[in-house]
Amino acid sequence: MPHHDSPTPSSSSPHDADWWRQAVIYQIYPRSFADSDGDGLGDIPGVTSRLPYLADLGVDAVWLSPFYPSQLADGGYDVADYRDVDPRLGTLDDFDEMVATAHRLGLKIMVDIVPNHSSDQHVWFQEALRAAPGAAARERYVFRDGRGDDGELPPTDWPSSFGGPAWTRVADGQWYLHLYAPQQPDFNWDNPEVREDFHDTLRFWSDRGVAGFRVDVAHGLAKDLRAPLRDLGDQQSYQPDALPVDGSHPLWDRDAVHEIYRGWRQVFNTYDPPRFAVAEAWVGTSRRMAYASADGLGQAFNFDFLGARLDADEMRATIETALADARDVGATSTWVLSNHDVVRHVSRYALPGDHRKRDVEAWLLTDGREPAPDLAAGERKARAAALLMLALPGSAYVYQGEELGLPEVADLDRADLQDPMWVRSGGRVKGRDGCRVPLPWTTEGTSFGFGSGGSWLPQPSGWGRYAAEAQSGDAGSFLELYREALRLRRTLVADEALAWAGSQEPAPQGLLHFERAGGWRTASNLSDEPVRLPQGEVLLASAPLTGDTLPPWTTVWLRTGAASVSRSGR
Ligand code: NOJ
């Protein structure tokens, strides 16, 4: 396949302030992407060496999960220094070299900001530990006295998202708050020093040429820390859709959080083009887009799409809501099928029935044996879902390895697990390591081309069959499907409108069918029965077509030559 000529530069100019509105952003989990020095850990020079592959794939930007100094208590989301590179992953010079190479190739770089908590190795937390109760150094975090006669009970009933209480006691008897692992103390965002420091961090990376930020736990910063702290009682279990819609939860999705992001926006807007951010906010659908407003971060991850069953009605409803909500705040929607926190979607779709989060966790605990996955079905559905996602208006976030059709590694040995969820849940949740196994680049060799010294999580023996090298040039492969889809997308994407086709007559059961401006349409058959192929010249299909039928679990892109759809998209 003629994909190896010089990479196509991004269609947007370097000063295009709107580049992110319909971008394809590739998520790199740096420790698992490419290892340049053979220590088994992916690193920044490894990323740089593979940037031509990403330019060739046709993405617009790369988002790097944390690469900062970290003791890896939570895969790098425990940051010891927000303005440096972990020495195991490289140096700031390596980072600058990566940015320069990306820019030469027409790629933008985004980094992950983790503002809810630092690592307990952060100088501020170390200082807080040395300071006395009530000292200013403790006020950057959340230290409180305990309850009980001797303060031996945690200050509240707040749970950690990784299991166990959200409080840990220090030597002098006070407790500190950590909504995640004990090695991840929560910042006190009521403290102006914390706010200022994050502005400095945003400037630090923006000055180095970073185009945008992914904001970790964006909905957690503004807690109600007034005395007396409120117990959660029956609000303990965390369900995004069950959070109060008036922002009254003591911990999550409080309205005051948006004031923080208005401050960030002012920092972003001092740059040309303005920097942009996408919020990771696990909140109810109706509250999500507040994070994406023009005076806020810009975009918010739409996890409803990831969580929806591959069912035409459910997908259609999810898409409609996401598009309408985004339009309301002048943003665009995002589309995500996988990331470093969820079971890879090939495997989710390979499981029978309606496999939602809890079922998938139970499946992982059987090491992926029960129920038996049908990988061929999962791959077919994943290909159909990819072409659906990439046809939608807004930005698609592609998780590394998704373009290779990687499945979850569900049978990792318990002894190899690194995710704090495994230990903190007392073995009830196996955790997220199975989607973080280092990528296979070559069909053979040490760690399949990931690096020369093995890999920090073991790769399955058959991993070579998924290697980029094995798929490149094979027209039927996942990789070539993604390359072709991204190439076409650049030529086709016009504006942000979408119109459902066939609104006069009911669409056949299981068919999702819509038009985009510029004369192209997408039809996804999300059912077990073939349907009639809609009219148009076939541009790309996720599975072979025969005659004028659209086979089960297949998406097709068609050119219609019709005039643009209306701006409203309705
Ligand atoms: C969300 C990140 O994606 C996840 O990996 C991490 O464990 C939590 N936030 C805590 O930072």
UniProtKB/TrEMBL annotation:
Keywords: Hydrolase. The keyword Hydrolase applies. Residues 27-436 form the Glycosyl hydrolase family 13 catalytic domain. Pfam families: Alpha-amylase (PF00128). One of its GO terms (molecular function) is alpha-amylase activity. GO terms for biological process: oligosaccharide catabolic process. Belongs to the glycosyl hydrolase 13 family. This is Glycoside hydrolase family 13 protein. It comes from Streptomyces sp. NBC_01401.
